Amino acid sequence: MENRHLESGDSVFLLEPHIKEGEGSLRDIHTLYWLSKVVFRLEKISDLSSIMGEYDYKRLLKAYDFMLRLRYCLHVESKRRNDVLSFEYQKNVSSCLGFKNSKKFSGPERMMRYYYLKSRVIKDLTRQIMLLCSKQYMPVFINLSIRKITDEFSVSAGKLISTKHNLLEANTDKIMECYYLYAREGRKFSDALKERIKSHLLRINKRTRASSVSIHYFLEIFKSRHVYDTLREMHETGVLGRFVPEFGALRCLVVHEPYHMYTVDEHTLLAIKNLENLITTNYGNLEELREIINSMEKLDLLFLALLLHDIGKAAGKHHEEEGYRRLKNILDRFNLEGRKRGTIEFLVKTIS
Q1: Which residue in 40, 194, 218, 324 has its CB near the most CB atoms, within 10 A?
Q2: What distance in Å separates the CA atoms of residue 145 and residue 294, rounded to the nearest whole number?
Q3: What are the residue ranges in the chain where pLDDT is below 70?
C-alpha cells in the first residue's frame, strides 16, 4: 500500500489525484476490507460496522459511494479507462456530478474540495483498521518507565501523556501546552491524549484564541526544531483550524494556479516542511541556503509568515485585500510588537 501511494504522489491532496490507486482512494477501501476479512473473518462489508462503529461505517459508505460515482463520470468523460482526475476532465466531471459554480469558487474547485474531504475519511479509517489488525499479531511490550516533564505531563513509552484525566476540561490553555511540549520534546502523543484533545476541540473558542497563555505556547512552537511535525499534528487533529480559523478555512481548498500542486493547506504545510529541512540539509547545492537560514535571528517569524501567506485564498478570487484584513485580525489577537508585526506583514505580502 505504501509503495502504491508513493507511485501515485503520496498525498491525498494532489490537485490531479489518482482516484483508484492513490492515498485515500478506492484501493484503500479494498485494502481495509481485505485486512478485516483476514483478521476478523468478516463475511460481508456491512460487518465493518461491528469493528469501526456505526458512525464511521456510514462515513465510509458515503465516501465509497462518492468515489464510485466520481470514477464512473471520469470514465464517461474520458471515453476510456482513466483513473487520474486531471485538470482537463475536472470541469465536465464536476458538471456530471452536479457541482455548480458559487460566488467564490468554480464547480471543479467545489468538487475537488468535496473529494479531499471524502478521501481523508478513507485514509483515516484505513489507518484505523490497519492498527486494529496489526495489534492482533504484534507482541505488546510494556514500558513502565515514566519521565516527568511538567507537573501535568510526562513521557511514557516514548510518548507524551497527561497525568491528570480532566486536565483539558479544567483549562483549555493546556491543549496548546500539549503542542508546545510536542514541539519542545519531539515526542508524539499517546493515543489516549490525542483522543482527549479531539474530544475537546469545541472548547477552543474565541476566548481561547485571545488567551495570552495559549498564544504564548503557540508562538513558541515556531522557535522549536519540530515546527512542521507539530503544525501537521495540530492540523490533523483540527486544533490548528480552531485556534487560527483563518487557516482552518483553507482546509482542502482548491485553487487552480500554476504554483499549486496541492490543496492550499497542504501547499502551506509542505512549504514549512521544506524550509525546516533546509536547516539541516547536506545537499551540496543548498549549502548556501542552509547557512543563510541558520544565520537568521528571527526564523520563527518566517515560519509564521509562511503559515499565514495564503489565508486570503479562502475568500475566492481577488483575495489580496481580504487576505490582509484576515492577517491584521490574527496579528491583533497575537498582540505582536510593531517591528515583528511589520516584518510578518512584509513577508506575507512578498511570499503571496
Answers
A1: 218
A2: 36
A3: 139-144, 256-260, 316-320, 352
Residue pair 99/92 in contact by the 8 Å Cβ criterion: no
Q: Please give the model's pTM, rounded to 2 decimal places.
A: 0.81
- How many other CB atoms are found less than 10 A from the CB of residue 325? 13
Q: What is the DSSP string of 65-116?
A: HHHHHHHHHHHHHHTS---B--HHHHHHHHHHHT----SSS-HHHHHHHHHH
What cell was used for 184?
519542545
From the list 127, 104, 134, the residue with the least C-alpha distance to 250 is: 104
Residue type, 34: W
Nearest-angstrom CA–CA distance, 235 and 171: 21
State residue 141's pLDDT score. 58
Q: Write the DSSP assignment of 18-84 as a string of letters.
A: BTTTSTTSHHHHHHHHHHHHHHH--SSGGGGHHHH-HHHHHHHHHHHHHHHHHHHHHHHHHTS---B
| Residue 96 CB contacts under 8 Å (≥ 6 apart), including other chains | 73, 76, 77
